[in-house]
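Below is how a single chain appears once it has passed through the pipeline. First comes the sequence as given, then the structure the pipeline wrote out for it. We keep one example in the README because the format questions we get most often are answered faster by looking than by reading.
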Amino acid sequence: MSVSSIQAPALRLACVAMAAVLVGCANPVVKLDVAGHSLQASPAPSGEPASIADAINKLNHVRAAYNEAIRDQTGTTQNSVTGLVWLGAVMLGGASKVHRDVLVTAGVIGGTTYGLTVAQLDKRRIEVWQAGIDTLDCARAAIVPLEMTDGDRLALRGSLGTLRGRKAAVEAARSKLAAHLGEIYVTAEADEAIRALLLTTDEALKQSMQTQRGGEFLVRASRGSELSSAVNRISSKVTEVMGNIALPPTAVKDILAGLPTQINAIVPGAVSTSKAAAGDGGAKAESESKFAPDIQGMKQALSQLAVAQEAVNDLLETVDAPAAVAALKACNLAEVIKPLELVPSTEIFTQGRARVAGFEIKGGLPNYRVKVLGALPEGLSVSFEGDSANTVSITASDKVQPAEVRILVSDRNSKTQQFVVKVQAAVSPQALTALAVVPPAPAPAPAEVKDGKTKTSPATPKPTPSPTPAPLHAPPPTQSSSTAAIEAAWKDLRTALTAPGFSRTLRGVTFGVESTELKAGRLFVKLKCSKPDAGLPAIDVREELAAVVPAAKATLIKYDALDAKLDQIDVSRSKPCVKD
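Resulting structure:
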């Protein structure tokens, strides 16, 4: 056979193959020069952003990298089509009686091209990269409405500083007022009034803490830090899912699960402003001159706290938080649910005094479950209707004895909170008798007038001077009593933190306590977090832990065993879940 007789069929075969290749490439992937669609000439931003615009620039670089990866994978698909075209050409060539050597060469080219590209093709990779792009878009849509002017952000930071200072003042005033509880000069009526004011204070502190966290989140979000951090977490999650076939591509979006809770904290009306409301009981307590200054100091501190909290709330309303919530819902993220909380979080009864009290369950996801941890002491009962009810009633009879009971409340999302019930010992009659005031000696009998002469009655013997009664205020605590109080407070706090089912949720991260150790006046706490690398701020975690038992916190602050920053609660063993 001549060379020309081979060349002609080979040329026809090549033309068929090339025409098919061109058909396969007739719909190429267009490389758009648009932010977030293709890689730019400039390098990817690094470091802390100065604005949301900086964070968006960083997001666009990561997004573009995912788009490039998808385009490369799509190009692999085109190559596999090319391989099939060559194989098809072989079949056509065989039917056209093309020379065997030409067919073998075409078959090798087609088979190799198809085999290599099929080995590289992975549809799951495309799904993971696309999930990364979708999640980046969700993060951007939720954070952009939270942009603030530099002036507003500066004002918010200043207001947050004021709020922290007012909170510290309220906590100090609370400790001073709480020191009067159980003192023998406090009447039962005044005692109840003080407790009511302390419960109001605890609620005000809890509300102001929520406002503080919302403000701190907005500061981070408005300067781009929150979006930049989200980009880093999304990128890490994409890498993790890509390398772990057990994780579905949808797991990438789970990285934003905590965002709804954080944004919910800045929605107008999400947190009410704390108010001091002692009512008639407060007025009656103020009539007791011995601690009226402390009552007034407490009310003044609460009033100043409310003003500081209102200032922060006003600045939170300068951003479009509802638009951010709508963006999250559009991304099919979990519906915004307020944190589970109990109002109030503790109740104190007195031995031998019958009384009915209770608490309200707020937030979370109904229906709620209520469980008493341990056995109830005689004379104390807990009532809860169940299903969609949100109030729990606690009744103490006159037979109730000193005890401490914890009530565990959980919602449908398995979030939990604990309510603390304390029954304190009543003051013994002997203590009251010891401080009884001795009545004054009777006055001498008046002189008697008889027959115009004055006759003085025999002098009444002078009574033996009684010892001066003890002043009607509590003596300063001795070293041993203060040490015992501190030890008891630390014990109460540790017991609550390590109780079965204890957990808290902070910035979308749920954590429990794995272990505690009290050493050299410091409580070392090791947490177990739902996201081990969450990087929760240590100060927020310490606040959350100390607030579990308000009475213990007040005692520790009173005896200087706990400072305003709560540094004595050490969470350094919980890194990287917690960061300094």
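Residues 3-121 form one domain.

See the next section for the split statistics.
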